[in-house]
Amino acid sequence: MSVIETAVWNRRPQTAVRIVDAHAHAGPYSLFFIPEAGPDAMTRVMDRCGVAHAVVSSHLAIQLDAAEGNAQTAEIVRRAPGRFTGHLTVNPWQDPVGELARWGDDPRFGGIKLHPDLHDYPLTGRRYAPVWEFADRTGCPVLTHSYDGSPYNSLPHVEEIAVRHPAATILAGHAGATPLGFDLAIEAAQRRPGLVLEVCGSFNSGADIARMVREVGTDRVVYGSDFPFIDLRMSLGRVIFSGLSEEDRAAVLGGTMTHLLQWRSRLGR
Fold it and tell me: Can you give the residue ranges of the Amidohydrolase-related domain (predicted)?
């Protein structure tokens, strides 16, 4: 049994691997109640599980008010820069150019978050063009919601963007979300080297994650949880007990995402 598995069975925080949650949120959600959704409560859970860092976007930003929500995300990172990095949410209906101009150079933000399903706008639409121009120019990773069969962010939408913007790093959030979606996400990632699979969701398993790693590589698969929308412990356990080698598991749990977040240093910023 590995060190990290032993820590889980002994119910103590693991310290063997730097874990980075690539897909987290913070704050209340308008459609249903999420208990203890603030960053302080999130940090307590992260500490219990040995999660070093999380990349967050506020629920307010992805759903109702990108400008105010991005300001909230920036404040969360200001208060705890060692624990959080921000995802800058771009809503295509709420001044995407202005939000990128306001926050694009702010080091509190390490990625961009898109949610076409919530925004009722296709990932391939022209209103997202400023995002792809920024990603092409800087190397900033873009996390987009992806869901098999969606009219807005299905895997064909994601792959079309990867074809149009081969220099961009695109994280397919939920990796398509369903068993068929996982197949399509793997096939798209095999064809498009800029596409990275992020593994949070309610329908995948450790075996699915291990297959993603086998078929696309550890530099193309990252751990995310959707915390606190989904409890990070469920997503974390699937990776820890997926049967991956210790080296591969460390890459998925944090090594690959840590590298992706260093794009500002590669620009000399």
Answer: 20-256
In the three-class reduction of DSSP (H, G, I as helix; E, B as strand; rest coil), residue 24 is classed as strand
Long-range contacts, 245-252 (Cβ 8 Å, 24+) = 246/2, 246/4, 247/218, 248/213, 248/218, 249/2, 249/4, 249/17, 250/17, 250/18, 251/218, 251/219, 252/199, 252/209, 252/213, 252/218, 252/221, 252/222, 252/223
> How far, in Å, CA of 97 to CA of 95, rounded?
5
Q: What span, in angstroms and rounded, lies between the C-alpha atoms of 207 and 255?
A: 20
Instruction: Give tens-digit pLDDT for 140-178.
Output: 999 999 999 999 999 999 999 999 999 999 999 999 999
Judge contact between 50 and 14, C-beta under 8 A: yes
Backbone φ, ψ for residue 55 (5° rounding): -100, 115
**Cα Dmax for the chain:** 51
Domains and CATH numbers, the chain: 3-267 (3.20.20.140)
